């Protein structure tokens, strides 16, 4: 493993204790709600925040732990934050050349390297501009070029796209995805945007309250979330319970009938919001999964709407905009939610 | 007009309130106007009484020119020393946390509020022939500090350096520490991240601090006359020359004052948009 770390950091509100491992060239996305300790984890990797325990080993070299603490400048990292943090008094080229210069490269070679790196990100023509003359998207690309120009073993991306406007975000995301494919070091990407994680990362690590609650490939996590927060992120309804027989998961709020499963014991039951149908009165000859609910919130996105419902079982439904209008869905409305058993997947907890 | 007057007539209470508002405004305007007059009048008087035809002759007077020369020399030395010594101090204070930094900051503020003549006495106690440092210095090397141009610089430094340090500390404190974090991850040593990132970003603040310190040093009177004396050509700076000239040749004093007023306004113009809005 090229990155092998266990990060323990004491904070006033929580204790971070997170293990991360990744091979060369891999992108690990760390996801979690605000205040989950994601940025703290990155700062600990960069050497900007001291560890209270654990270790950081990168490419076989111990950066921290067992009495060792390399200062940030002795670690081979590149850091990109939400704000570009380009040095305002330097041109784009000199910003990118700053790293190679700091590591002892000659002025001419550092500038050549900067120009190459800017060219690779498609912004070679902006090399002479000051940060104040760049758009947000351009500046963030320069910041990425600056972080990569030292060929770091560990690239740390802290919500790199979150401060961008919706127009430039997809373009910068595409640039980032393209450049990361050619990057040979380990990338740790902190984000709360599932789209960043799913499109950029090889592995996802979910952190909540300073601890890892789930990790796996994007496919695994999307298919089988094992935490309410994870389920929210990937947009699934998720319930914990006991698989008592081959077709029912008993949850504290009652039985959920599934498409059928082999395992017994602690189990998750999951279904997509699109599988949920809403009715104003109890449907006749109703499916076996039928629950009375109260509409809590309706969010319209294009032709579909997400309807959050509360009840014995909290259910999120995805319905058409037309249904929102015909059922007059609004907070406080009493309704019935149904899900076909064939749409419910169960897997061991 | 009639529209506005009618409700007033119909509602005497409202009319009374409006008159009260007018009274309040007058109550504020009178002292405010007096305050402006108290400041502006002396400056205006200086301009009115100046012998404009002979200002340059007065400044070239053998009794005045050496004082101007000495003032330029000592204030420039003071500012250079303040920048060289004060910048690292300002940086340390800007990034320091905890008690010690707060105490140093408080210590630096003392010369700002201390009567300058007390500063002069304190300087004598430190550097005088029987002073804490001056005594051993005299006995070991026969070096006497008081009543020399060096004493002038020490006096100016005593009052001007705190101005510089406090101005620059403010400017450096506003440099986002995350720039230094990024510089460190890029491999920059703390020295490189200070000299290549923090320092350039603080340059406007340093310029303002230097101008402020220079203006303060130029006007230094009390500490200088106490500690360095008033020897023409040796320790007599421009403000001291003005004071002396006032008895001998008042017009020359006015001309020299005028020159220093112009210099002060130039400094003010340099600071515009930074300290003066």
From TrEMBL, chain A:
InterPro entries referenced in this protein's UniProt entry, alphabetically: AAA+_ATPase, ABC_SmlMolc_Importer, ABC_transporter-like_ATP-bd, ABC_transporter-like_CS, Mo/tungstate-bd_C_term_dom, Mop_domain, P-loop_NTPase, Transp-assoc_OB_typ1
UniProt cross-references to Pfam families, sorted A to Z: ABC_tran, TOBE
An example Gene Ontology biological process: molybdate ion transport
Alphabetized UniProt keyword annotations: ATP-binding, Molybdenum, Nucleotide-binding, Transport
Signal sequence bounds: none
Source domain of life: Bacteria
Domain annotation ABC transporter: ranges: 1-234
PROSITE patterns referenced in this protein's UniProt entry, alphabetically: ABC_TRANSPORTER_1, ABC_TRANSPORTER_2, MOP
PANTHER family: SPERMIDINE/PUTRESCINE IMPORT ATP-BINDING PROTEIN POTA, SPERMIDINE_PUTRESCINE IMPORT ATP-BINDING PROTEIN POTA
MF GO annotations: ATP binding; ATP hydrolysis activity
Name assigned to this protein: Molybdate transport system ATP-binding protein
Ranges of residues in domain Mop: 284-348
From TrEMBL, chain B:
PROSITE patterns: ABC_TM1 (PS50928)
Source taxon at top rank: Bacteria
Entry-linked Pfam families: BPD_transp_1
Phosphoprotein among keywords: no
TM region(s), chain numbering: 26-48, 68-94, 106-127, 147-168, 197-215, 252-271
ABC transmembrane type-1 domain mapped to chain residues: 68-271
Membrane association type: Multi-pass membrane protein
InterPro entries xref list: MetI-like, MetI-like_sf, ModB_ABC, NifC_ABC_porter
Keywords, in A-Z order: Cell membrane, Membrane, Molybdenum, Transmembrane, Transmembrane helix, Transport
Record localization: Cell membrane
Chief place of localization: membrane
Function per UniProt: Part of the binding-protein-dependent transport system for molybdenum; probably responsible for the translocation of the substrate across the membrane.
Family: Belongs to the binding-protein-dependent transport system permease family. CysTW subfamily.
Protein name (record): Molybdenum transport system permease
Organism: Pedococcus cremeus
